[in-house]
Specification:
This protein has one domain: Immunoglobulin-like (Sandwich). The strands form 2 sheets. Strands 1, 3, 4, 7 and 8 form a 5-stranded mixed β-sheet that branches. Strands 2-6-5 form a 3-stranded antiparallel β-sheet, with no helix packed on it. By secondary structure, the protein is mainly beta.
Amino acid sequence: MDWTIQDLAHANHNPKVVVNGQGGSEPIQLEMKLGDTVTLDVAGTTDPDGNKLTYNWFVYLEAGLTGMNGADVEIAGNGDTAVQVTAKSSCRAAWLKGLVPCRGDGVVHVILAVSDDGQPRLTQYRRAIVTVKPAKSN
């Protein structure tokens, strides 16, 4: 609402988020095999007002599960400008007994929240949609 009482130059602005060299708001698409680790790096992320930025990565468990298995990943280094995401399973445990066991690829949505310390504090979000391929059976 500051934009309604202050001119553009004096209002706070959202951070401009870059993940693995990709700016904009489109989700980052990643594919991993079970046990793989990928790095998600915010190098190039800026705040138009020069405010200090903080980074929070988290898994959005419910997203993307229509017709898909829920994958399980581990995020190491949360709060840093780069995190390591490790694929632990292409099929995390069902939240409800009696559900059809999952098979094949799994998906998980990893969300990045970048917040500035301006007034008011603003947060910009970016999503990485990770497809996890199961281990090959012999």
